[in-house]
Amino acid sequence: MPDPHPPRPLLVTDDPDLLDDLLRLAAAAAVETTVAHSAALAGRDWPRAPLIVVGTDLLPSMVELDPAPHTRVVVAARGDTPYARPDSPAWEAALRIGARTVLSLPDDEARLADLFADSAETRPGRSPVISVIGGRGGAGASLFAIAMALAGRRAGLCTALIDADPLGGGLDLLIGQEHAQGTRWGDLLAREGRMNWSALSTALPAARGCTLLTWEHGPAEAIPPPAMRAVLSSATRGTDLVVADLPRALDAAAEEALHRTTTTLLIVPADLHAVMAAHRLTPRLLQHTGDLRLVVRGSCPDLPAATIAHALDLPLAGDLPAEPGLARTLDRGDTPAGRRTSPLAGFADEFLARLHAEHPSDEQDQGQNRPLLRRGPVGTSADGKSARTHRTAAP
After folding, report:
1. Is the pLDDT of residue 113 over 90?
2. Residues 137 and 277 in one domain
3. Is residue 163 part of a domain?
4. Same domain for 173 and 228?
5. Which of 69, 209, 374, 376 has the fewest CB atoms within 10 Å distance of its CB?
6. Domain of 86: which CATH number?
7. Which band of pLDDT confidence, cut at 50, 70 and 90, is reported for residue 13?
8. Strand 263-269 to strand 10-12: parallel, antiparallel, or no bridges (unpaired)?
9. Are residues 182 and 250 in the same domain?
């Protein structure tokens, strides 16, 4: 069960100008905070806070209290105060309360905003990223990406499904959520830097228990690499599994995604034309991803999966049998991999289990049954005043 009172960053200051700056930076990161207007009032939330920002106005009082050691304490000073200088008393005092550094505003605003964003991500480490790409057009890579995402949900993993193909038909159509409301790629193309996954996932459409990032219906622009970097960085900090559907015509954003991918799956139908097309693509993929594996669809005695793997010189992740009634299922608007009897679903479940067995340390980091939408209560300051908090519908 989610914590009904999740810990929030603690701001220890009674300087109204500094507090305005800190609250503004926290709001930009879509993070709610607790405010202690005196050193004595900071004690209640000090042990649980994921980040503590102590203003230089209350720093001497905090030194006198000799607080318990904490791994994430920083001191904040306004640029027009003498505390911003490395030779100032604030630096020695900061060390005495275990602070990592003294940040000067506005010069260090970007760094402090990143610390606020980091504090919202409670999952240790980063989640694995599985990227899926077709060896030729129509290989079924999008359906396989959906199957992997749904397998993640069946395994109890908080899962993000990223549609990175601007010229595809849209994963929302294939998963039966074309009318779902929420933020799409068009709203994020200008984004860069850190984003809070809690806020982003709240704004994105939900599809069969997964968080989905896809396209608006109609023409789509290419994804700038900084936007792809920001989305994947946020998703890997806030989820247990990320699945990305990549375009076969690799663009700069797809290459950025491959650089951040744990395992790339190349989907190749068992026909000679598909094998030749995949043979042209494979060298370029190997320039950008360290773990490229082959999934063969519908192998036959004349062209077995092992032969295709040998021809492409790739490790074989598996041989995916044909999906009965696939065309009829798609015409009805159903998702084949949503049924446990589906060969797609069975293959994805088995592969994900094998991948976790290969990376047991990743599995230990992953929280089970963690809710996709995690929202804290309305904030209050440590002295009972209403805290000034920030909520966003979209990042």
Report:
1. no
2. yes
3. yes
4. yes
5. 69
6. 3.40.50.2300
7. very high
8. unpaired
9. yes
In angstroms, what CA-CA distances link 3 with 244, 375, 376? 30, 10, 9
106 with 141, same domain: the answer is: no
Higher per-residue pLDDT: 305 or 122: 305
pLDDT of residue 382: 38
DSSP string, 27-93: HHTT---EEESSSGGGTTTTTT-S-EEEETTTHHHHHHH-PPP-SSEEEEEETTSGGGSTTSHHHHH
Tens of pLDDT, residue by residue over 125-170, are 678 999 999 999 888 899 999 999 999 999 999 999 999 999 888 8
What whole-number percentage of the chain has pLDDT above 70? 82
Closest among 240, 277, 231 to 364, alpha carbons compared: 240
Count the residues in the chain.
395
Q: Are 242 and 128 in contact (CB under 8 A)?
A: yes
Check whether 275 has a pLDDT greater than 90.
yes
Structural domain for 138, as ranges: 129-365
- Vertex 351 angle, CA 262 and 306, to 5°: 95
CB 290 within 8 A of CB 263: no
CA-to-CA distance for 281 and 198, rounded, in angstroms?
36
Among 172, 193, 203, 179, which Cα is nearest to 112's? 193
Q: Is the pLDDT of residue 383 over 50?
A: no
- Tell whether 124 is covered by a domain: no
pLDDT digits (tens, 9 = 90+) for 259-271: 889 999 999 999 9
- Is the whole model's pTM more than 0.70, yes or no? no
Distance of CA 171 to the CA centre of its chain: 18
- Residue at token pair 């000090």: 46
Q: Are residues 211 and 286 in the same domain?
A: yes
Give domain status of residue 390, yes or no.
Answer: no
Q: What is the pLDDT of residue 374?
A: 27
Number of domains in the chain: 2
CATH of the domain at 140: 3.40.50.300
- Please give the pLDDT value at position 173: 87
Q: Which residues of 315-332 are buried (b: 16+ CB within 10 A; e: fewer)?
A: ebbbbbeebeeeeebbee
Cβ–Cβ < 8 Å for 133, 267: yes
Going by C-alpha positions, the residue among 238, 146, 150, 164 that lies closest to residue 201 is: 238
